[in-house]
Amino acid sequence: MWQTSRLSPPDRARYSPAVRRTGPKVGTLPERNEDAKRIRLKLPYEWQIGWRYTRAGKRTTGNGFISFIALVSMSGIALGVAALIVVLSVMNGFQRDVRDRMLSVLAHIEIFSPTGTMPDWQLTAKEAKTNPEVIGAAPYVDAQALLTRGDSVNGVALRGIEPSEEPQVSDIGKEMKAGSLNDLTPGSFGIVLGADLAVNLGVTVGDKVTLVAPEGSITPAGMLPRLKQFTVAGVFESGHYEYDSTLALVNIRDAQVLYRLGAPSGVRLRLKDMQRAPAVARQLVHTLSGDLYIRDWTQQNKTWFSAVQIEKRMMFIILTLIIAVAAFNLVSSLVMTVTNKQADIAILRTLGAQPGSIMKIFVVQGVTIGFVGTGIGIALGCLIAWSIPWSVPMIEHLLGIQFLPPSVYFISELPSELVASDVIRIGVIAFVLSALATLYPSWRAAKVRPAEALRYE
User: Fold this and answer.
1) For residue 176, pLDDT beyond 70
2) What pTM does this model have?
C-alpha cells in the first residue's frame, strides 16, 4: 500500500497513485534526484518553500516588482542597522575621549574643607590612601583670577599645585608643549597656561602676564585690586578646549601667598578605576576624620554627562525608526507576495496544508529577509565605525574642512568606539521588528480560501 501520510503536501501530490502510474511529464531523473535530496534533508516543507520565495526572481514570482520591493526592504533594514551602529559608536567615542581628556586634568576625587583651608591635609591624604582603590594624593589650592597682557583679559581657573606630587593625580606633566611643571619653584611666581589660553593672551614661555586676584587690599585710598606679575613657565595641551582655554597652574606656595591662605584648599585623589569614584567617595565619607566635603569627577561634570546620556538615548530611539520604516516596507513586500501567490496557497491548502503551515511559509520568508538585512547592516556598520578614526581625517584633509570645531565640541577629532552590547542590542531589535512585520501578511495568507483563489485560474 502506498504511504503518503508522512509526506508533505507537495511531495504527497508528486507521489500520488496517479502520478506513479503515468510518471512525471518532464525531467524524470533530475526531479527524482532533487526529491531524494529534499527527503534526506528532512527539512519541513514550509522552510523550503519560504526560502525558495526569498530567493525567487521574476521567473518564479511572476512579478519582478515584488522582488525589487523585497530587496528594498532588506536594504532599508541594513542601512538602518548600519546607521544606528555608526552613530552610537561615534557618541561612545565622543564621550570616552572627552571624559579621558577631562580626567587628564581633573582628579578622580577632591576632598576639601568648608572653611576653605585644610591645615591637616597630610593626615587626610594618609587616611585616604588606606583605601585600596586610592593610588595617589596631592594638595591643591583652587581660586579664580584674571590674567591680563596688553589689551587682552581672560578669566581663569587658577590652581596651585605641588609640582613633585602633581603627577600622582593628573597627567598634565605629560601634556606639556613647552616648559615643565618642575619650573614652578616656590617664590619664582611662574605660571603654566593652557595652549588656547596662551594663544588668546599672545604669550609664550618667558613672557610676563599680570594676575588680578578678586580679593582686594584695603588701603587709605580705598579698596585696591591685588595684582601680581607672573612669568610664563610652560604651556600644556590636554585636548579639551574648556581646560586649555581657562586653566592656569602656579606653585601651591605662591598661590597661598597671593590669596593669603595658611594652608591648601584640599586634597586631590587618583583611583585605580575611575568608574568606581562614586563608590569610593561614599566609603571615604565614613573613614576620613574631620568635617570634610568629598566630590568625585561625575559630580563635577554631572550636567554634561547627563546631557550626553539623554542625547544618546534620543538618537537611539530616532534612528530605530529607520529600521521600523524598513520593517513596514517588509510588510508591503510580503502582502504583495501573498496576493501574487494566492493560487499556490490554494493548491497547498487542497493538498492538506494547514493554515499554520501557510503562515510558517511567509514567516520564514520575512524572517530570512530581516536576518540577512540585519547581518549586512551589522557588518557594514562595524566596518564604518572601525574606519572612522582614519577615514574622517583623510576626508577633512581632502575637502579642507573641519567637522568638529574644538571651541564647540571640546575635541577636534571624530572618535569612534564600538561597544559589543550596543551592536547586540541593535541586531536583536532589528530582527524582532522584522519578525513582527511578518505576522499580518502571514495571517492574511492563512485566511486565503482555496475555492475563491482558484475560481479564475
Assistant:
1) yes
2) 0.66
